[in-house]
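Practice problem: predict the structure.
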Amino acid sequence: MTGKTMITSIQMLIAESRKMIKGKVNMSLSEEEMKCLLSYYNSLEKPEIVLCNSFDKHSNLLHWREKWYVVYDRHFSQLLKDLNRIFFFEENEIDAYKIIAQIYAEELFLKGKFVKSGQFINSFFKKDKKKYCMNPEFEEVLKIQEAFIISHELAHWFYFRIQEKEKVSRALDMHYEKCRGYFDEVEREKTVQAADDKIIKLVFHYFKVNPGIQEESYCDISAITFLLAHFKVLSNLNSIEAASAAFLALYAMQLTGFIKYSVNAYYTDHLEKEIDTEVMDLEIMLRVIIFLKYLEEYFDRFEKEQADEYKRNQTVWMYKSHNLFKDKLNYVGDLLFSSDDTESNKEYDIFSREWEDEYRKIEKILSGQ
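Answer:
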């Protein structure tokens, strides 16, 4: 590589592409449980699961030097711990503002917008921020969520990267028909109003013409299928508890994706500040509908004694995700996009001496060091 040192390891490659956080990187899942995840996919060559800890947060599938890797970002687990406290244990709903503000602050930090990132930290964080202790139930929920995210990435690898094209096509056709059945079922429900009916048709049309969202939705279903087959090996939770943990992991993945998209869009176009978030809202709605409808079918077919309980829980999950997170997401986003940020719109060299102290200060606060 001209002018650069040759990257000799996957960890070095990841470190060069992400803003890493110092500290030990570990997971709730054990090595044996990791092997269980990989054993679900019938292939001689399996990807290596690599851990990192960065402000980027997202996990992804990576192909490098003729080999596949699933990169799991442990920083996302910390985010899930905080969301779990609010969603499942309702410890402090007001902390939802802080969590969402922190995600925004991290994305601003990654964009080099230190002034605005610092403003968010000063507005939402205090030095006496309460520390919460984990308990065994927390750990069981987190373990399922980590398994769901890794399984989602493994599904990207198995169904869309290594299988023969004709096999992938058949798998997609089956999934497409199943998804269409879900939407047809929703449309037939007597409770659907005219406006809702139009939304459902709009969402389904978007699914039909968007291969990317088809793939994401398929991987969501593949991941929850694995969990429901193996959750008794992975944790002591029952099937509904495992499903609820996976639902929040899916919602959190989309929540962070929505914030990343919003920040990137806002600071990419300096002339037009209108952010088109309708597409992201549409994708969140679509993936959630397909995911929950799949679970409904699963409980109706395989765990009928719990089907009614699942349907009651499904309504609660939707209500909680909207009231605990969506409303606060809009509130914090409005603060960001409506305030005067002439100063924070400037571009700064992330390694310049002028901003090095500010960079380190914000990095230290965000990482909780």
